[in-house]
Amino acid sequence: MNTKLIAGNWKMNGGLEANQRLLQEMLAGLAVSPPAAQVALCAPAPYLAQLQTLLSGSPMAWGAQDISAHEQGAYTGEVSGAMLRDFACRYAIVGHSERRQYHQETDEVVAAKAQRALNCGITPIVCVGETLAEREAGETVAVVKRQLAAVIHVVAHCTSEMVVAYEPVWAIGTGRTATPEQAQEVHAVLRAQLQAATGHGKHNRILYGGSMNAANAADLLAQPDIDGGLIGGASLKAADFLKIIASCPAAA
Ligand code: PGA
Q: Ligand 1 centre from 76 Cα, in Å?
């Protein structure tokens, strides 16, 4: 079993004062019960300096929610991998469904972003997932395999360094979670795809995301191919996030 990774995705939420309170509460909780899992928070870019200041030396790593596919130059509004490195980001989420949906990110753009992260020594958390219409049309496996294949094709031998997150779009922020069986089924498909393409799929961490919360985390995290969670709403509440972390069994 891989060591679990619990990664928070704050999305476009937060503020300097609120972040400080939230992080202090989380750190206090982790000091009382040291985590069996690895823990990270992915914050809006303006707060990365704050996370670096408050989390350095703590059990929580931090990361970004996106990364530019470009190295540098005339790309107004974008944040490069080198800039994220300046703030010691360990992770960058790429291909979140909200980026695919609202910013028209294609599989190719997502793959380029994953590669850029790897080039900068940042672990990409590559999100894949089907919409409700795709699930109802029986296309779930085809969709997630297509999304992951585009990334594997581009990052090739660096695949071992990436984290994959299965996030069914219909479960994100809706309170409608995939059942542990539904999630496990897709995770097993993704693991087999990684294994076939790279030979080291057993070691890639595959997270589940989509309305994971304090009540349902233990059952999801008990599935053999679920190596952790990408947590949106529940990562904005210290008590809930701490409970999810505490649901992680220690690695064998
Ligand atoms: P949620 O978000 O936990 O609020 O459903 C998960 C995500 O979008 O990463």
A: 27
What distance in Å separates the CA atoms of residue 74 and residue 181, rounded to the nearest whole number?
46
- Residues with CB under 6 Å of ligand 1 are 9, 167, 172-173, 209-212, 230-234
Q: Is 157 a catalytic residue?
A: no
What domains, with CATH codes, occur in the chain? 5-246 (3.20.20.70)
Walk along the chain (252 residues) and give the pLDDT tens digit of each residue: 789 999 999 999 999 999 999 999 999 999 999 999 999 999 999 999 999 999 999 999 999 999 999 999 999 999 999 999 999 999 999 999 999 999 999 999 999 999 999 999 999 999 999 999 999 999 999 999 999 999 999 998 788 889 999 999 999 989 899 999 999 999 999 999 999 988 888 889 999 999 999 999 999 999 999 999 999 999 999 999 999 999 998 766
CA of 58 to the centre of ligand 1 (A): 24
* Atom of ligand 1 at shortest range from CA of 165: 9
**Of 96, 105, 130, 187, which residue is the catalytic one?**
96
Which atom of ligand 1 sits closest to the CA of residue 230? 9
Catalytic residue at 161? Answer: no
Atom 3 of ligand 1: nearest residue by CA position: 232
